[in-house]
Amino acid sequence: MAAAESVDFAVLGYAITSMETEIYRPSRIILLGEDASPEARRSTSLDVLVSPSPPPFFLWHTAEDVRVPPEHSYRFAATLARYDAPRTVHVFAHGPHNLGLAEGAGDASGWTALAEAWMSEQLRSGRR
């Protein structure tokens, strides 16, 4: 039998982390449909799928994101905190959704350097 696969660490940018909340319901409708069952919503909500000993997470968002509000990152960070999971959260003051690498996007343009340093630390620490 093959060894179970696991995630060593994860970087999430402006991620939709919950389908159970009404925080920006349009995202849920686009992804799951208007009539998604509670079971479907729960089974696709990262914030309820966190298990003991989750990997480290790097979350970044912008406060001005109206497509996926930063509350998704805040709530997910709170879930990770309940498990005492290593986490880094950056919410930049300015910038819309869908910035990608955010080149030339003010303070949000720093997310890639922050993520690079964080990933290097994860690889050096060998936590997983």
TrEMBL record:
<dbReference type="InterPro" id="IPR029058">
    <property type="entry name" value="AB_hydrolase_fold"/>
</dbReference>
<protein>
    <submittedName>
        <fullName>Prolyl oligopeptidase family protein</fullName>
    </submittedName>
</protein>
<feature type="domain" description="Peptidase S9 prolyl oligopeptidase catalytic">
    <location>
        <begin position="50"/>
        <end position="124"/>
    </location>
</feature>
<dbReference type="InterPro" id="IPR001375">
    <property type="entry name" value="Peptidase_S9_cat"/>
</dbReference>
<dbReference type="Pfam" id="PF00326">
    <property type="entry name" value="Peptidase_S9"/>
</dbReference>
